[in-house]
Design brief:
about 425 residues; six-stranded mixed β-sheet
Length: about 425
């Protein structure tokens, strides 16, 4: 399969297009060729009828694009046709800066599903959640939308408002969200430390700069003065991104072994990606946090480190996107995003529509907020100037924000507690 070839079909008459398609498929069985030819004759017949008899003049380009969209929708949710404008939107995505809501979506059963809102961005702040089904954008039903149609509608100039209508499990009816678009500058890696020697790195997506950002973060949190005892790698609600970046990130923790493999119908789609020893892979234990929003490239990293016995997975089952897409640019500026293969973890497992089950299942528990007026009996620790207990002395080095993180996030707390007691388990 050679995706470097490009065919300009926008200026060809249909008979010439038919001949080209037949020539392109010369390796296919003759029976299939004949069936394709019959169907193309049918398409030509319908197109001529529409052009001659439809009540109004039609734009041939619009009709052809509509036909291509229909063809791609008959495949899988991740295969789609993109206009030149939509293709440009996709290229902007991987750069990490665009103007919109900050929400990652997918297509399922002709519905737009929220995979994950990006933390701190307009959709997240408004209250949009993973699993929400978007049914309208600015009052317009999206029943016949492609995934790229939805992306284009959701984006717009900074400061402009968009109203999305969602259906959420457990709610009685649709919910409207009025959200103001903003510039989404996605820094894909954030980091901090807990208890001085437990590292925490959050990867929100896999874009062009992710591996470089991760390398910098690892160096900053693992100093000579206070070497790390362990690392929590947070891939929750990470929708994925660039395959190459997921391979690079995995390789940073592995000295050897298979990272991921892919297999499709064509030989060109078969690849085995392996780790290389660069001499500076970290040796401390790693726990990866995963959940239902962990998808695609994030699942590749999770599977690679898990199957190579380099990390423990903690959290809940992942999304289950185990397919590989390639982008085929067309000469008129449009493009096809086409699913060409499935990928497999080092253990040879396909996670397509299955996801990855964590080693330690810990469902996220939403923190219970207490009312301001709730009374509590005064204790010694509330008295000003009280003598500090041993536990308080231990916690003096921690900021209030860090303690608040652990109180609100039971999955993170479980991972950190496990790493803090790692040496105890080793000795048993």
């Amino acid at each position: 399969m050679n995706f470097n070839k490009k065919w300009d079909i926008s200026f060809l008459s249909l008979p010439v297009l038919i001949i080209l398609i037949l020539l392109m498929g010369h390796r296919t069985a003759f029976a299939t060729d004949n069936e394709t030819y019959k169907n193309l004759k049918l398409f030509n017949e319908v197109l001529n009828m529409v052009e001659k008899n439809y009540v109004e003049d039609v734009d041939p380009k619009v009709v052809i694009h509509g036909a291509i969209n229909g063809m791609m929708k008959s495949l899988d949710p991740h295969s789609t046709f993109m206009t030149a404008e939509q293709y440009n939107d996709l290229k902007i995505d991987t750069k990490g800066t665009f103007s919109g809501l900050g929400v990652v979506i997918t297509m399922q059963d002709d519905m737009v599903i929220v995979v994950a809102p990006i933390e701190g961005k307009p959709a997240f702040i408004a209250g949009v959640k993973a699993g929400d089904k978007i049914i309208k954008i600015d009052g317009e039903t999206i029943k016949d939308f492609t995934i790229m149609d939805a992306v284009h509608k959701l984006r717009g100039k900074k400061g402009t408002k968009v109203t999305i209508t969602i259906v959420r499990e457990g709610e009685d009816g649709p919910i409207d969200f009025d959200i103001v678009r903003d510039v989404i500058e996605i820094k894909s890696v954030k980091h901090k430390t807990y208890y001085e020697n437990i590292g925490y790195i959050r990867i929100s997506n896999f874009q062009e700069t992710t591996s470089d950002e991760l390398d910098k973060a690892l160096k900053e949190i693992n100093t000579k003065n206070i070497p790390l005892k362990g690392l929590v790698l947070d891939l929750r609600n990470n929708p994925g991104g660039l395959l190459g970046q997921s391979v690079k990130v995995s390789d940073m923790f592995l000295k050897s072994g298979v990272i991921v493999s892919s297999k499709g119908r064509e030989k060109d789609s078969e690849h085995i990606y392996t780790a290389r020893d660069n001499g500076c892979e970290p040796k401390y234990p790693v726990i990866i946090l995963i959940n239902g929003g962990t998808a695609s490239a994030a699942e590749i990293v999770s599977g690679a480190l898990h199957d190579n016995k380099r990390a423990i997975l903690l959290g809940s089952q992942t999304f289950g996107k185990g397919s590989v897409q390639t982008i085929v640019p067309l000469k008129d500026g449009s493009a096809l995003k086409l699913t060409i293969a499935k990928y497999y973890t080092p253990a040879g497992e396909s996670i397509q529509a299955r996801g990855i089950v964590p080693d330690i299942v810990v469902e996220y528990i939403k923190p219970v907020t207490t009312g301001k007026n709730e009374s509590r009996q005064i204790r010694e620790e509330d008295l000003k100037g009280h003598i500090k207990g041993e536990k308080e002395k231990e916690e003096d080095g921690k900021t209030g924000k860090e303690m608040e993180d652990l109180e609100k996030d039971n999955q993170l707390k479980n991972a950190i507690d496990l790493l803090r007691s790692w040496d105890v388990f080793k000795e048993i």
